[in-house]
Structures
1.
Amino acid sequence: MFVPDLADRIVEQSFGLFRRHLQQARQAARVEHHQRLHRIRTAHEHATECRARAEARAERDRLVAERVVEVLDHVCRRCKEMATRDGAAP
């Protein structure tokens, strides 16, 4: 009776250690997975913010360029009007 009980305890302890190590490995993997997802999420949020800023800058630059073209068109028209009024050839 002693030998089977001893064998059962040894097997039980071995499997207990195995289960404990497996749980620790799973926990470490969960932590690593969580950290990896956090880094990905942070990088995605940063990229989204950068994109929004870049789009805003592009829109601002487009509006400025349109305004410059409007001003140049106005100046050109005024110069032609003045040249025509003064009798000079356009």
2.
Amino acid sequence: MGCGTGIITAKLAQDFPQSRVLGIDIAENMIEYARSCFTKEKNLNFITADADSLPLENENLDIAFSNLMLQWSPNLKTTLTALWRALKPGGKLIFSTLGPGSLNELRNAWAKIDHYKHVNNFVDREQLTEELMCAQFKILKFETVYHYRLFDTVLDLMHELKKLGANNLNELRNKNLSSKKSFKQLQIFYDKYRDKNNKLPASFEIYYVYATK
């Protein structure tokens, strides 16, 4: 789910050659790129699809895997329900997603510029647990890890978030693109977080979840 360029998906196909592996992403250009890169894995296929309406038969999957995609879902409940439907009884859901402690530096810097919400309101552990249980999943393991990435510039951070498929789902988001003036202000306020090595930190609260149907 949210396979992007297909690197991790291809690794799964290589590690489990007797299994059929399907990479799914909503971005058609990503799927086209993945297909062009991984042609040797005969047990691997890629399709363009929305996670909320998977084009799969009921009880078709043994395992559903997703790495840092679910946090961009506009309706997490719908997405989890779609995954539960597609999994076989006893099927496993393995994923990572971002928690509310993510991107605090970016969120705080934007807050000094305007009243819009430029960073997603990521669901917390309690809410995610509730959503999984409502979708009838049984949680086998739930781990929280705090991770920090260092960047040379704010633009480097933005490019990294774009690679993750970042989009702003908040109702109070600015529907117009941020102006050059706003971005310059962002650079000024974010620069206050530079460390002794002149790097800009970005915090990530990552949830690793292992659940079963």
